[in-house]
Amino acid sequence: MSTPETTIAAPRTGRIDPKYTRGESGKGNFEMLAWLFMRVSGVILVVLVFVHIFSNLMVGDGISGIDFGFVAGKWAHPLWLFWDLALLWLAMLHGANGVRTIINDYAERDGVRFWLSMILYVATAAIIVLGTLVIFTFEPCMVDATGALLENSPAICR
Q1: Crossing angle of helices 78-106 and 30-53, rounded to 10°
Q2: Share of the chain above pLDDT 70, in %
Q3: What region, left, alpha or beta, does residue 86 occupy, with left being phi > 0 and alpha being psi -120 to 50 degrees?
Q4: pLDDT in tens, 14-63
Q5: Where are the transmembrane segments (predicted)?
Q6: Which one of 23, 25, 46, 69 has the largest count of C-beta atoms within 10 Å of its C-beta?
């Protein structure tokens, strides 16, 4: 009794079942750059987060010392403005890139993938814009209509 011959395609021949392909859209090096961004931003984020946590919780009064005055005093120095801005931007872009990858991997229909991506991009842009506005327009020294300093303003304003 002879067995029928079965032909198995050699690996990496490029023959992929059409249901697993999404067309021949030329993405160029975007995916490679996105992969590289994840690695570089991840390393930078580790440093940014640990210094942020150390400076906020380990130095001074710890968590009980974090209040409006603490933030006002910290953001009075340009280094901390830049530090928190870099933390915000990198964390949001790093997270959005990761979610974009998950959407591309698991959303099978083009329409679903498009709308999930649009929601992700709009939410990311909104958080980055609003967070940046908060950092740059933060004014701890509150004044009344006459320009006099309010009595509940933090000590750094006096």
Answers
A1: 140
A2: 82
A3: alpha
A4: 666 666 666 666 567 888 999 999 999 999 999 999 999 998 888 878 88
A5: 32-55, 75-93, 114-138
A6: 69
pLDDT digits (tens, 9 = 90+) for 62-76: 888 888 888 888 888
Q: Is the dihedral of CA 60, 62, 63, 65 positive or negative?
A: negative
Residue type at 119 in one-letter notation: I
Q: Rounded CA gap, 34 and 151, in Å?
A: 50
d(CA 60, CA 147): 32
The DSSP H or E segment spanning 34 is helix 30-53
CB 124 within 8 A of CB 136: no
d(C-alpha 92, C-alpha 96), whole Å? 6
d(CA 24, CA 17): 14
CATH class of the region 30-140: mainly alpha
> Which pLDDT belongs to residue 26?
57
DSSP-based three-state secondary structure for 61: coil
C-alpha–C-alpha distance, residues 65 and 59, integer Å: 10
